[in-house]
Amino acid sequence: MAGVMDDTRNTDAVTTWMSRAAYIPFIILAVLCWVPIVNAEETDFSTTQLGEPLAAVRVHGNVTIPSSEIMQHIESRPGRPVTPSKVTADVKALHATRWFASVSPRVEFSEAGPVLTFNVVEKPILRRVAYIGNDKISTKELTALTGLRPGHAYDVLINREAVRRIKQLYLEKGFAFAEVALEKGDAISDREAIFRIKEGPKVRVTKVRINGNKIASDARLKTKLQTEVAWFGMFRGQYDPSTIPNDVAVLTRYYHDLGFFDVRIDQQVTFSDDKSSVTIDYNINEGTRYKIRSIELVGNRVVGQEELLLEENQKSGKYFLRRLVNEDLEGMREVYGNLGRLYATVEAVPRFIDEPGLIDLVYRIDEDKPYIVRNIYVDIDGDHPHTKANVARNSMVLSPGDYADPNLIRRSKSRLEGIPAFAAGTGGGVKIDIRRVEEEGGNPSVFRGQSNDPGYVGEVDLQVYGNTPSGYRQQNPFVQSEADQAEKTQNGFRSWNPFLNSHGQGSSKQPATQQTPGRAAVMPTGAASATRFPAAANGNQLETMQAGTRFRPENPFVGNTAQPQLAGSHYQRKPNPFATEPESVTVAQNNAQPYVPGVNRKERPVQTVPVNSGPVVQTSSKSNGEAPGRVAFAAAEPQVSTADASYSGSEVPAQTVQQTGALGPFAEPNPLFGGTAQGDPFSDIPEPGFVDLLVNAREAQTGRLMFGAAVNSNSGVLGNIVLEEQNFDIFRWPTSPSDLWNGHAFRGGGQRFRLEAVPGQDVSRYIISWSDPFFLDTDFSFGLSGFYFRRFYDYWDERRGGGRINLGRQISPYLSVGLISRIEEVNVSNPAVPTPQDLTDVLGSNFLFTVGGMVRYDTRDSAINPTEGYLAELTYTQGLTEYSYPRVDAELTNYYTVWSRPDGSGKHVLGMRGQLGYTGDDTPIFERYFAGGFQTFRGFDFRGVGPRENGVTIGGQFLALGTLEYTVPLLANDSVSGVAFTDFGTVEEDVSLDNFRVSVGGGIRIRVPALGPVPLAFDFAYPIVKAPFDEKQIFSFYVGIQR
């Protein structure tokens, strides 16, 4: 019909849509059924921990790089389980090759098992690398620097980084005007990397001038500079502009340390016309040097200002010197360290005032609270560690139960670094981490040194498992082994710590199977309320003690003040490998007065305060029934009891702290002071915290084969060959051939074994020796040695063979004692003619047996180049059997720093030495005193001073020698020094000064670090007073080289 439209098209569309919609439920159902199938076949690696091994590892998407090449960088292998961490490491390894733009791992499941697939997208390939214009630096060196090679992935960013590296290398080598451009390789479409280099001249620093300096010389300030001047304008001294700002900063700091806070330093760089040399000028305006108007301490409440500044170095009215301020800071930290305030901080802040040239010096102090060492854990690290943990523990000067003194912790670390068995150096082999013990409801804070390190989580388990060897030494006077406990209780020998428990007399004996001694630690009474903590040494016993017991401080850092007993705290122990548990403990309280804890640099009197006695609870499976005594501080004391003692082997009953109130003097106020206007003087004393010391030591290479040579005016030319093992263990015999090949046999005990051969022109010596600095894990050192010695003297030849036995002990850091026994066979031959009777008497073979003792006190700051301190040594020797004679030797050496530069360098040192010796009438000629030579009496020949008979030196029975020596540095870096000296004294047949000699002279000392710590010595001396028969020697020297 005209004008009428048939719209059947829309109707068909609707019908079609409706017919298709009927299939939607089936499609949804199919999708829902398919999804679990997909999940069953493919799994995201990041959320899956497969328990079955991989069936295959594949690489997908690589086009130009072979799969075999890629698989070399993948650690995951068929037959091994897959973990997210392993896959993540593989992805990082593939990215590190720089071959791929992306790497995507996935895990699929097949009938054979899981399949790990890495989908990779390759980067474009670099076809060519070229360096144009490089004449001074080889292409090989540049290739190693950039890492670019044909066939590697092409990356524009890597090419630009290569430009920066090449330019930096040229700058470091002195090419200050070098230019590097990227001709090709800066566009995404490139496939080549071409570097165009313009090297320019090599610029050397020919002169450095310092202008305006008055307080210090040019030479001294130049030793602080990083910029180096070329030698003769041709060697070294490359110009590096980056060193100039560092030089300015260093010089500015140097002046600030001397009190020049307004100093201004400008630099000026002048190039030569051809740009090959440069002159650098540092123009200094020193400004005003500030003096100290007053010194103020802020924040000190526990320790008074008089004690903190007891040895004040930086005084008011004097110029500010950072060196002296640092010494005062160290002294204050030492005081707080002695009190166990591990995290106490002291900082010096200059406060400027309106008056020019004056400042107030303010010491800001945060005293924190005391900390006590709870546990010391040791971990020996290394590729194949074999060193015993006791090697480290023996050198610790801290024990569980001691104050956590940072000075002693640093000293322990220094001693550990000095053990040859452990590596030392920056980032080296010894670390001591300090971890606060976990408090109620919190986590332990971990510290390294004295700085909070919240990111530290610990890389190794530092706890040592297993029982300590039976001979483990008892260094801590507050803790005893089971074997020693009863005897020391009866003798009354015990030191005291105010935070350790006191004990009454009771049974502490164990069955025979429990007699293994170990290091013990008594838990302090000042633990946080309701806090649980393991014993400082698991299985350690508490000592029993009677009231009125004597005390003997065995620790040199603990004072010998009257020491009371505190009430013990009840706790239970957890297993610890350091010791075994006693069968039972009896705890009693003693009458005592309060004690101020800590040991300061100088003893101060203890102020005692009378207080009421607190409650005492005495519980034990075997009590002696003694009545409890009085407690030092009136406060509710924790009750003490022990857990069931019925156990065997390494099973140790657990121990728990059960609080019955506040802890000792650290909580409830003292009723004697609570109502006064001043309050309780003990109310501000914080509860002590506890820390664990985590010692990690990495083994070093301890076997050495050394060759050396020396020449001196006494012995001529000497060779030196040494085979040494510094981590020897004479008790670790091999149990199988593998122990010999893997290095476990005879190693790991911290002992020292040495074979030495010293062939020489006039003297030869061959020695085999063994020593143990902590014999059987005690404080005693023990050594054995055998030797053969040959010497051609002017008037006879001498051969000696025999051995020595040494036993010693380090009483304190300065005091040591020792016993020495010597057995020798001495053969004297080829005598001079005419032969004195004393020499005739000893011709042929002679048997020598001596025993003796030695006491040594050494406070020198250095054993080789001392500048202050003194050495005192007294030795007594008694000859026995064939030759019976006494011998007494005494030596005193003292060093004083007379003058030094304001920065503490350039010390003028006055050294004084005196020697006295006497030996008995039956002393053979080869054991008498002789003098002369660079070691004893300069200006005289070796053994040229002493009595003579028929022109032959026969030695004396009395020796008196002295030396005065003044040392002055000749160079700004103190590497060369001049000495002026006088030697005086005599050697006589009896006690007299009849033939007193005097010599005067001078010399130089040259310190060459590459040749060892001992300086080269060259001396000229002339005797101004001598005996007619003495033999002179004007020049003496010593040169030694060792590798």
UniProtKB/TrEMBL annotation:
<dbReference type="InterPro" id="IPR039910">
    <property type="entry name" value="D15-like"/>
</dbReference>
<feature type="transmembrane region" description="Helical">
    <location>
        <begin position="21"/>
        <end position="38"/>
    </location>
</feature>
<feature type="region of interest" description="Disordered">
    <location>
        <begin position="496"/>
        <end position="525"/>
    </location>
</feature>
<dbReference type="Pfam" id="PF07244">
    <property type="entry name" value="POTRA"/>
</dbReference>
<dbReference type="Pfam" id="PF01103">
    <property type="entry name" value="Omp85"/>
</dbReference>
<keyword id="KW-0472">Membrane</keyword>
<feature type="region of interest" description="Disordered">
    <location>
        <begin position="560"/>
        <end position="579"/>
    </location>
</feature>
<feature type="compositionally biased region" description="Polar residues">
    <location>
        <begin position="496"/>
        <end position="517"/>
    </location>
</feature>
<feature type="domain" description="POTRA">
    <location>
        <begin position="52"/>
        <end position="123"/>
    </location>
</feature>
<keyword id="KW-0812">Transmembrane</keyword>
<keyword id="KW-0732">Signal</keyword>
<dbReference type="GO" id="GO:0019867">
    <property type="term" value="C:outer membrane"/>
</dbReference>
<keyword id="KW-0998">Cell outer membrane</keyword>
<dbReference type="InterPro" id="IPR010827">
    <property type="entry name" value="BamA/TamA_POTRA"/>
</dbReference>
<dbReference type="InterPro" id="IPR034746">
    <property type="entry name" value="POTRA"/>
</dbReference>
<dbReference type="InterPro" id="IPR000184">
    <property type="entry name" value="Bac_surfAg_D15"/>
</dbReference>
<keyword id="KW-1133">Transmembrane helix</keyword>
<feature type="domain" description="POTRA">
    <location>
        <begin position="203"/>
        <end position="287"/>
    </location>
</feature>
<protein>
    <submittedName>
        <fullName>Outer membrane protein assembly factor BamA</fullName>
    </submittedName>
</protein>
<feature type="domain" description="POTRA">
    <location>
        <begin position="290"/>
        <end position="368"/>
    </location>
</feature>
